[in-house]
Fold:
Amino acid sequence: GKPKSGAKGDMKKFDWIKVNASVFYDLILNRATFTSDPILPIGKYINSDSVTMWGSTVDIEINPHRFLFLRASGTLGRAWDNIAGNEMPYKPHIQGLTAVSIQPTGRVTFSLEEQWLGRRYADIENRALLGSFAQTNLKGELKVGQGLAFVKILNLLNTSGQDSPGFPVPGTTLYVGYTL
Structure:
């Protein structure tokens, strides 16, 4: 039948689009970070008395049809080591996500998403950069009883990149599970 007012599929109202935005600020005290030096083949702990993190996130979800969901999210942020006077390593300035989800029934959802991680410093001295990279993920979910059975294929296209120096992003990875 025809959807009732306020139900999914009612395009007369603006309930088919959601926009969320947030700003964050965090002061972390007594933090220790392990970092590797790209010039010298050693690893070391950086003890910083305080780290300041700040940024903002925008998340948009569009539901143009009751079975289709489009989502985009982006975060701009900085992490600053107040003792060293440099940015913290491995923290990207920009990261994002786009996704398309199809929900043919109330119990089944299929999603295709693209995650992007921007350039970031590879060391505490801010001498070297890690390049940006993107990875494509495919997910399927089925509501079973009180829980959710899922299959996820992460890094579907086997994209190469590094989370931190010497630690490449895992290749194509399959996850199968059930959550309550």
Residues 155 and 172 are 5 Å apart (CA to CA). Confidence is low (pLDDT under 50) at residues 1-11, 33-48.
